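stuck on this:

***
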Amino acid sequence: MEDKINLIPSHAVGSWILGIIHSVLDRLGLEHTSWLEESLYIAVVLVVSLGFGWILKKCVIALLRKFVSMRHSEAGRQFLNHHVISSCAHFIPPLVFLGFMPIAFSRGNDNHLLVIIERLVGAYTLVTCGMGLTAIGRFIFFRYNLRENTRNLPIKGILNISLGVIWIVITIIAVSILLDKSPAILLTGLGAFAAALMLIFKDSILGFVAGIQMSQNDMLHVGDWIVVPGTPANGTVLDVTLSAVKIRNFDNTIVTVPPYTLVSTTFQNYRGMVESGARRFTRTIIIDTPTIQRLTPAMLGDILKAHPELQGFVSGLNADKHIIGASPGVRPLNGTVETNLGLFRAYCSLYLMNSPLVDPSSRVLVRVLEPTDQGFPLDIYAFARTTDWGEYEAIQSAVMEHFATTAPDFGLVVYTSGAMTVDEVSQPAPNKI
């Protein structure tokens, strides 16, 4: 076999190890056969190279850790926490082993064992290089996602596809080394299995395409609250990969949805609501029909005495503005002085516009919907001044409770299955024991 180029100049060390093996064989009275010497040398070199490689790796890691820690930078601390140095140092032991191996074999003869061992170790060296490249790629993605990805775009799929390409290339080269074939021949053979590969990697390919579409169209960020119809997904996006979008629901259950499902169908994203700082609520109060009355001067005086804040609205009305009166603010009040329900609408509008619980820059709407068998639905449409779920529920509950308890001041009764008539409302309640 022709001389090979050694990666590490280890002839002196190799000869010294062979001398020790000869001495041991002489003391044991064993014959110096080439096969026995090579087998013992392989075992010794394997132990020595792995031990020397492990020590060298530890020394390199210690020096690099010391150098990085002396710089006192956040990037250096994160570099150490992600174990990038230790992952990249895995290739040192196989390189040491490759440097020792050629010295044990006879020169000038074909030695198939050396060729097999060199191929195996060469393939393993490529795998360790892939481990190092993977660690570096993950760290680069982490730093970019932390500093540059301010919009939390779902770019993890790009990392996964990049790492997948690296491992595919390494696998092809490693197989070509083991089979002693050109990588081009292997790539040509893979073309025949393109259909099978497309079927195997269908989800990954669709996920990659969906990730690009979601990033380009700004459809989804990590941390968004989304609802996917037809699935139990209703919560915050935790992670987006090639094969799954991981969502934490409001009850802390985890739901995974394929990325291409979000692109091929529709989903609701609450990001706009969260960014606005206000959340819409719409509730309906059903007013019992018999309690809706035309306002009389006496009734109007009693209502204004109980709610003097309506005095400006009533005083500002004229013959041309008997449907909508101008309020002191920018937005008009929705109400009339024709009926007690119209004045109650004006009160509800004024209350929402001046309430610290309601967002002043968003639309406020109080309207009467189509009558039903139960009565006249009074629809309340406004935006709470928060996006927190607990505070949001508390605000809309407080608003609706206030309207329900204020309606009797206008002679109105909120519908129940046993709602009172007008005559019963006007009569004082009997004393009860």
Q: What stands out?
A: The chain has three domains: 11-211, 218-270, 277-426. The first strand starts at residue 225 and ends at 227.
